[in-house]
């Protein structure tokens, strides 16, 4: 029997769709799943692609079905299962074989796995895949980390299955060891911020302007034709238009307001903090999900405090406030993306990855959850100035911020006066107001630190006296 050119372990939601995508692009693929029933079901449902698939029920059979040197994608639950699976697989592998972890790994695990195999005849790639079920099946965005040599050996097959933006593949080698999984983590962090900001705008439309779900759907539909055009806005329009088959009510109105999370948002915040980068939009989004999950506490608190009176919304009878909401979302998005890219720039220095910012923006333009028109503009900005300190100060984005920050200010202040929570939108505004102010207020913090801890400070006049006259003797 003709051997497969690639193997895949893990026929869950992502793995089965990725395997069908690989088969459809003309690549012969061997597949294996811990529970063999899933392999049988997958093969039985593969239809005309079955001819490209070799279903295997043991690891021995699976490895033998792939032509060496073997690229093997592992698409299973992240964490310990990946280590367990690699341990079970290794005895069957031979020199030159590549294990590719395509799950949502923590990049620190990826570096550890990469280092463990570094001096062995085997190779490890950590690969971030975005786009959910649909992306996996028809073209995801793929972020690869590992040696350049190992990338070259999988480049053809990964290019064939990736999403395309105007014909350009949304896959790239981003750097050594954990680079791919780090970039995927920050992608998810930005996705958290994007979703939180959309939800906050939805809250203003629902609780401030008192619009119904179908009415709000139309607003998002209109915005999707403008500068906010993106997958997340598109699905928001669709979600808000859907009805619950059981109650007949809008589907969103019968969904519990408690959001889940699997960890990549939290990792983004932790890594931003470790690197000393302010990622306030992602922080607000993760905190927003945490508070959302405390449903019982919130219901109890509402009984104590009640809800504040909504102030009269400006432009409720016209379009002006809706325009403000659209522009506010755009302004806030810019801050969140600028923060995400700043985290990646810092990580690139810290881990020696040399992350290519224009390429990252490029491969996020299609296939992934945050795909948008906006990312094409980010691609252009970083292509013109790949080493810029912050996306906000690139000429194109500086102009966009200048056009939209007034709207963000009006929206945040209106929401605040109405008691409508907008933590991510407000964080974006404060981030911008802090970033654009040459003389901040940390002089006071430095004075306090010097007062109680003799930490010293720098002076604005360059005079060589670095402690204040606090009268303690020690500091005077
Ligand atoms: P599913 O829950 O659909 O499938 C999980 C898979 O992992 C199954 O094949 C399961 O095998 C296997 N598995 C679980 N534990 C072990 C173990 N100890 N040893 C071997 N195999 C094991 O998950 P998804 O397909 O959604 O996710 C797979 C990976 O992709 C995860 O890392 C996820 O974070 C990531 N991801 C998911 C996305 C999504 O939208 N769902 C998007 C991008 C990445 P069995 O059938 O035997 O239980």
Task: Report on the architecture of this protein.
Pfam families: 6PGD (PF00393), NAD_binding_2 (PF03446). GO terms for molecular function: phosphogluconate dehydrogenase (decarboxylating) activity. It is an enzyme of class 1 (oxidoreductase). Keywords: Gluconate utilization, NADP, Oxidoreductase, Pentose shunt. It comes from Rhizobium helianthi. The protein is α/β, with parallel strands linked by helices and 476 residues long. The chain has 3 domains: 6-177, 3-Layer(aba) Sandwich (Rossmann fold); 185-435, N-(1-d-carboxylethyl)-l-norvaline Dehydrogenase, domain 2 (Orthogonal Bundle), CATH 1.10.1040.10; 443-473, Single alpha-helices involved in coiled-coils or other helix-helix interfaces (Up-down Bundle), CATH 1.20.5. It is built from 19 helices and 10 strands. The strands form 2 sheets. It has an 8-stranded mixed beta sheet, with helices on both faces. Helix 2 (36-44) links the parallel strand 2 and strand 3 (53-56). The radius of gyration is 25 Å and the shape is globular. It starts with 5 loop residues before the first strand and ends in a 23-residue tail after the last helix. The protein binds NADPH dihydro-nicotinamide-adenine-dinucleotide phosphate.
